[in-house]
Amino acid sequence: MTGNATQFQNDADRLTSDLTHRQRIQSAMTKYYAARYPRQAIFRDWQEGRQTAAETKWAGINELDKHLAEFEKNAVSRGTSVHWTSTSEQARQVIVDIIRRHNAQRIVKSKVMTSEEIHLNQLLESLGFEVVESDLGEYIQQLKNEPPYHFVFPCMHLSREEISDLFENHLGTAQTHDPEALTMIARDVLRKKYIEADIGITGANFIVAETGMISITENEGNARLTAALPRVMITLVGIEKILPRLADLALFLPMLATAGTGQPLTCYNTMYGGPRQPGEVDGPEEWHVVFLDNNRTTLLADPEQRDALHCIRCGACLNVCPIFKNVGGFSYGTTYQGPIGSVITPHLRGLQDWKHLSSASSLCGACTETCPVKIDLHHHLLHNRRNAVAEKPGRLESLLWQGFTFLMKRPWLYQTGLRVGRLLQPLHGLVKGDILDPARAWTKSRELPEIAPVSFRDYWKNRPLVSAGDRKGGPP
Amino acid sequence: MKITLFIPCFIDAIYPKVGMAMVQILEKLGHTIEFPGELTCCGQPPFNSGYWPEARRLARPVLKRLENAGAIVIGSGSCGAMLKSFYPQLFAGEPEEAAANALSAKCFEFSGFLVNQLGVTDLGASFPHKVTFHDGCHGLREMLGKQPPRELLKHVRGLELVEMTEAETCCGFGGTFATKFASISTAMGEVKCASAAETGADYMVSNDSSCLMHLKGLLDRQGRPLKTLHLAEILVQS
Amino acid sequence: MTERDKIFSRIRDALKTASPKPGSHHLGHHPTAQQPDSLTAARTAASGARDWLPSVGHTEAEWITLFTKNSFDLRTSVIVAADAGAAHRQLRALSEAEGWARVATHGHGIAAGASAALGLNQINTDGGYDVHALERCDAGISGCDALIAQTGSILLTTRSGGGRALSVLPPHHVVIARLDQMVPDLPSAYELLHHTYGPAQWPSMITIITGPSRTGDIERILVLGAHGPKKLTVILY
Ligand code: SF4
């Protein structure tokens, strides 16, 4: 097992026995379900909407080069600078160069998951810049010095008491267990930050080829302020966020809100098409769009799993995932948690190091069922398992499956095995649950099923032959 | 109609009564049953573990043997899903691709087959108990949906169906997952069992024996009084 | 080779093999060579969204009712006034009730008119503004491009909304709009945008505002006024 796999197993063992944690996640998700499903139900046809969304993304991704070029042409025509980066390192360099060129000190960020991917905050802080996360959940996580727990609900694992303690320690504010009062504390601190910041960094939910715009979905208004007040705006975005047309958003925005939080639309859905234009009164003087590949083209090169690039990061697959609900967000050790993270991380960061996430699934398919863009998530977990074995089969496991196949291909051998098992089963009681128990992984928490005295095969072979006429008794 | 019964290994070895109940029900409806006893395993365990060539070696005899079969009825949503939706993927681009697609079209999960193909919802069964239904994920999402098993239960005399909040949540079995990630599997099972127990039902019923094997193991270990039964076993009660 | 060229060449290489159309995963599929017109046959959200989105009714009266209902759910206040004079009186009543001292507005016909009628200290963002002064305003009063019945939203841009900050920095955002600015649904809102600004006059920011600023980050409990306005009022006539 790789270090990541061991860490995952250990975290999973620890967190599944932490009932308070499980309870907290469960209760947050219950609130999510209560908002989401009624909202989904008022769509005239949610399923057809999903299909349309999926096909739109499919068309966008399968002509990605054309659409990115179209975006660039349109954006540049309004004075936007577009940067292309293949790796984390390059993206970090481009951003640092922009900041240095402006002699900037203070940076305010709205939610940018891609910046977690390239560890931007750590770098900027180490270079002596002040970087402040402005999304409330991200701000709390920044104070806590932890990555986001869930890429849509960053601090869902914390209680208001813990947040109050955190604010007291870092900001010196009085204890309060009122979510509103806590929110207002952050509001006051962060308002000053937007006004003082030299640089605003944002992410993007969509890139619109047709008009050279990006679209940001948010609830708090922090992204709007980040894009309004600082004199330079930088948008870091993965190349896969493409939509061919502006009006595609008419479907994607409500679907994202419905799947993400159960809202009809989030509070602010904002499309940015350039820096401040002639005649406009505010907005940044410069706008830099930094496109990041970071192995997205590796995923693109796998036609079987290419649809994983359709993801609109709504987080729904995490919210319905029974694995996520029981092991929580940190166990994954990835930027993107849950089913989508398990599918794409092996492509972004190496199959052998991250294949364990694809195995850690019962393949229930709740993720695929909920995904607003119909990504074939649980089947991709199977594809990752297959690819990992094809690339590097486990020696012991290989033998095991060859043995299994050998046995199962020979019904007589299988039946003999069954009879032997039946004979040995009473002896199992001697070792049950202890270290010598070969079935310990099962029996630690569960009783072992008993092999029936007469198998179905034996029953079928020995049942009295009835004439066809007798059998056709007809319905009662 | 001649119906071919596919009996997965764990029904054969551990829950033969489920298979017997299916035979009894289908014969009572006037159908002829064929049971290809030489088929043992659909290949799902190696398939799920990523060992596709091994899975294909197990699946090929199944494809071949069932080539000329009519309707194929499978007593477990999970193995059903293997034949119905995963064989086509397993054999995509292989010489057997067409055969796999053809097989897919004639595979049915037991309850879906009764309700949707035979149009039968009332089997004259009677079971005066409170039950809650667990949707096996593969039955639910790869094969037929929520309705058929509930239609059948609705017509059982004396049976009171109480839905649990977590009916559609995975029980955590997942084949080799149950032992590879035992702690997660157990936690998921606990959520399911707690939700089922909350309903006050006497029985947790499902159309998938593999889920029930895991759930029964947990319930027995926890000393909960809740019992488990396969849907077919209820439908033969009178 | 620039980094751009490298990325584009990786993309082109990757796309040499087509990926299966979404929703076909229940059948066996395997990658095929690109079929030229398969992509053009794909559905597009841009032209097909209306059929799947929530129903909105057919008449203007239904849209107004729906907008009001959605606004109520979102905690947006909606005031329907008989005419411009009544709208001005409503705005004044609001100002008095909340004890406004300073407001911000912009040179948008009906918003400017309503603000002027308040007789308070005011900032007009049109000529540029001091951000601290804007932050100290009690309300930002703006126009908009349209109201969207389907979602209870306000569509505004840098042009119809007095820039990027006016509608988000002050604690209360008031939108003055005409009833005939109501559009039924999101697809209509995008049609309107194309008609007003396309293809060459796009403002640098277009926003769809759906209720006052909010967050659920603390225990998924709703709190209004996370960073943007705590209150949102639409005065319609
Ligand atoms: S994979 Fe689908 S459900 Fe999961 S985050 Fe992406 S879009 Fe949402």
Describe the structure.
The complex is a heterotrimer of chains A (476), B (238) and C (237). With 476 residues, chain A is α/β, with parallel strands linked by helices. Chain A has helices at residues 3-16, 19-41, 46-61, 64-77, 88-101, 113-117, 120-126, 136-144, 160-171, 179-196, 222-226, 249-261, 296-300, 316-319, 322-327, 338-349, 351-359, 366-370, 377-391, 395-408, 411-428, 440-443, 456-462, 468-471, and strands at 81-85, 106-109, 130-133, 199-202, 206-208, 213-218, 232-238, 242-243, 268-272, 286-292. The radius of gyration of chain A is 27 Å and the shape is globular. By secondary structure, chain B is an alpha/beta fold. Chain B folds into two domains: 2-116, Rossmann fold (3-Layer(aba) Sandwich); 121-235, Rossmann fold (3-Layer(aba) Sandwich). In chain B, 52% of the residues lie in helices and 13% in strands. Chain B has helices spanning 9-13, 16-28, 44-48, 52-65, 77-90, 97-105, 110-117, 137-143, 147-154, 177-180, 182-198, 209-222, 231-235; strands at 2-6, 32-34, 71-74, 107-109, 130-134, 160-161, 203-206, 227-230. The two termini of chain B are 25 Å apart. The model of chain B has no long low-confidence stretch (mean pLDDT 92). Chain C is globular. At the A-C interface, helix 2, helix 3, helix 4, helix 8 and helix 10 of A face helix 1, strand 1, helix 2, helix 6 and helix 7 of C. Strand 9 of chain A pairs antiparallel with strand 11 of chain C. Bound molecules: iron/sulfur cluster. Iron/sulfur cluster binds at residues 259, 311-317, 340, 370-373, 375, 377 of chain A.
* Distance from first to last alpha carbon of chain B: 25 Å
Query: And the CATH topology of the largest domain in chain B?
Result: Rossmann fold
Radius of gyration of chain A: 27 Å
Rg of chain B (C-alpha, Å): 17 Å
CATH topology of the domain at 43-294 in chain A: Rossmann fold
Order of helices and strands of chain B: EHHEHHEHHEHEHHEHHEHEH
Q: Count of DSSP E strands of chain A?
A: 10
| Named CATH architecture of the largest domain in chain B | 3-Layer(aba) Sandwich
Let me know the average pLDDT of chain A: 93
Largest interface: A-C, 113 and 96 residues
Low-confidence stretches of chain A: 467-476
Q: Tell me the number of structural domains of chain B.
A: 2
